[in-house]
Design goal:
Helix content: over 70%
Protein name: Transglycosylase SLT domain-containing protein
Largest sheet: none
Number of strands: 0
Number of domains: 2
Order of helices and strands: HHHHH
Domain Transglycosylase SLT: 1-59
Structural class: mainly alpha
Radius of gyration: 15 Å
């Protein structure tokens, strides 16, 4: 992860401002690389973009699968709440 932090501009990855800025750039890059496919973006964020890019969801690692599912559940939950608030 230190290499990824440097790759996206965080020379001091424990600095909150640098960490958030680099993380945002990384997720944006993943969104472009995986054409917005949230499962791939979440898997790449967790396991590494190069690894996921080669396999495209053909992974068996239960940690990665669990992480992707947790992200999907949170996304759906928050999307549902946002939809409810917009209807008011």
């Amino acid at each position: 992860m230190p290499a990824t932090a440097r790759r996206f501009g965080a020379s001091q990855p424990f600095d909150p401002e640098q960490n958030i800025a680099a993380g945002t750039r990384y997720v944006t890059t993943l969104m472009w690389e995986f054409h917005g496919e949230m499962r791939l973006v979440a898997a790449a964020y967790y396991a590494g973009d190069r690894w996921v890019g080669k396999r495209l969801l053909e992974y068996r690692n239960p940690d990665v699968v669990a992480y992707v599912e947790a992200v999907r559940r949170q996304y759906e939950r928050r999307k549902h709440l946002t939809d409810q608030l917009q209807r008011r």
